[in-house]
Batch of 2 targets.
Target 1
Amino acid sequence: MSGAGSTDSAERLLSRLVTMLAFALPVIFVLVPLAIFLVYSFFSVDQGTIVHVPTLGNYARFFTDPIFLPVFWNTIVLCVSVAVICILLAYPAAYFLTTLKGRWRYALLMLLLVPLLMSYVIKIYAIRSILGLNGFLNKALVALGILDQPSTLFVFNMNAILLTLSLLLIPFAILPIFLSLERIPQTLLRASDDLGASGLQTFLRITLPLSMPGVASAASFVFVLAIGDFLTPQMVGGISGFTFGRILYSQFGTAYNWPFGAALSVALAIVVIAAILVGERFGRSRGTSV
Amino acid sequence: MIALPRPSTIFLAAITALVAVLLYSPLFVPIVSSFFTISHGNVDWSSPTLSTYVTLAGNHEILAALRTTLIVGLCTVVLSVISGTLLALYYHGRRSGRSYLQFIIFLPFLMPPVISGLALLIFFREIGLERSLLTVVIGHTVFVLAIVYRTVLMRLQSMSRTLVEASYDLGATGWQTFWRIILPNLSSAMIGGAILAFALSFDETMITILVTGTQSTLPVRLWAMMRLGFSPDINALVALILMFTVLLCVLAARFLIPRQMATERN
């Protein structure tokens, strides 16, 4: 940094380089792969090699084959159920957090969020052992007299996927709901109280509507994360728990049909984008953005 | 919140406790099993042991996977912090085209990992890049970039413009302003972003499974082992990783939360 002139030209060079990188990085590593992926969905496979001739065959197969649409639909229903379970558990917990004061509030929030950062694979494995025939859940239900003998109802089927995904994704529902509850102005609640509303009325007419954006974000987070997961169904779903993520993944492994897998991914992407847009739309309304 | 009547507080507290139990029970299982033997679902509380930790020290396969994970994590952190900070600096204060590029950066984070992973898999194949640790690092960087970018951008936006203006008024060059004013102000956001990036990379499984070559990271190794069932020393490893993760969380919170809460108060 001796002369002003050389610094200037170095700076200009650097700023040009940064400009180039700022455009090139996202385009090369995100947009181009996604574009190639989309193009692949119009290719086909013949005896193990990919035929680079555009066709709508993959999409036709997706819509006409009796396997794919039902699995697709069941998976959507499953993931909506996961979102509902997560919200039913997360909402009261998030509400409880906002009733706490200062330090405790954030300490407990951290406590409920920390499990997110713990190994996903290990959590799935542990949950499977809890749900299994010799697992803790069956032991507890038998001990409580709810079941006569251990049941296989909770592992290697759709129930298992539902329960496991819900357990894994609850923290993703807690955070947005907590944030939207925390942003409700206290004055509104006091005003409602002063005007003679009961606690329940205040909750139903003030708190609940104002926290809906958080609920919408939570639902869209959980749904998107659940529908894209192929590890959990693979691990706890057994033979009967077949989800769309698993079918998709198998196209790149055992079935070895990349173009068809790409077409299935496009279908998945459309659902995901719709979920994100819905979450975004309702997550932003009424001025309490999350 | 206004004070609630007692019964509803108890109800809410009970649900919160239930949620905490649900969230922590899957973590509890491996930790308990790392100190006690479990047979047929019954814990043998009478004989605590550290033998699992001793076995772990001799498990070269798993330690190699751990080393690979750490290498991938560090490379990812370096790449994502540099490019995330560059992008944040570039887009900050620029209107045209920013929202589109920002959207592109966020795509891999918003999209299901299976889509990002498959897109990259086909991309690497088309450009003739063999699957290896390099492709894993690229995959992880693309995935975590949004987090680093956003963390740094938020700090930039909360930074007072007057600081930069004062620096120029006092005769500093662009370089000097960058090194002495902007970068020190961003450092804690960059460290916080780096910790988050490392934590995400450390546990990333779905993209890694798709783009990895012969060398696998720890989660992928565990995933492969899980089909056959785990040996007890894996529990010891999990217990150690959990402790390490909690430490990382506390560190990340230290670097990220105090400033944010301070800016919210203002």
Note: Chain A touches chain B through 86 residues (CB under 8 Å).
Target 2
Amino acid sequence: MVNRVVVGAHYGLRDWLAQRVSAAIMAVYTVIVVIALIAGAPSDYASWKAWFGQGWLRFATFLFFVSLFYHAWVGARDVLMDYIKPVGLRLFLQVVVIALLVGYAGWALQILWRA
Amino acid sequence: MAELPAKRKYYQPWYNLDLRNLPLPGVVSIFHRISGILLFGLLFWMLWLLDSSLASPETFAQAKSVTSHWFAKLVLLGLLWAYLHHFCAGIRYLLLDMHKGIELAAARASSVWVFVVSLVLTVLIAWRVLW
């Protein structure tokens, strides 16, 4: 017998938690990057590119972007559920949001690991 | 025959934009939402700026000239405020989740702090970086 939950929106807790975990990741990243920038802000192209070329920063920035896009999805979904009542329109807008965020994630990956 | 339950009445429309009687924590809440929508809307431009600044010296110069325009600076100022407000209000919500500061007086005071800290940081960073 398949043990399946057929009632209740259990994704609510998962998203609630993901929203907070992603927020914490972004907050820590923000503080670290601000401190790193205060310590020595790159001003021209070469130093800016070299600064972003650091391995740990690429990793942290990609983690930041993934957190950002997941966080943005949860937030946008909440906003759409609150204000857009026609189901078809809401579904359409949710698909638009997901498409945008998935596309942004690919773009972010390309920006960070471009040769 | 069993009586049918009374039909639920909705006195409030699901949109209620009258903020005059909204308590301060409610103002923080609606600004959290507005700043979040603003940040979402500006994602494309942010990624474009990051992309341009890293792609080549030419696009770096292009990004620099774009952001030196007064209107772009105004948008960046709005973005900076949105990020800082969302950041400060978010930390407040994380603390509330941990049942810290949930009494009425503490919740009101922390709402004031969210506005004060985010606005002061916005002015400071804008003054040091944008202008």
Note: Chain A touches chain B through 22 residues (CB under 8 Å).
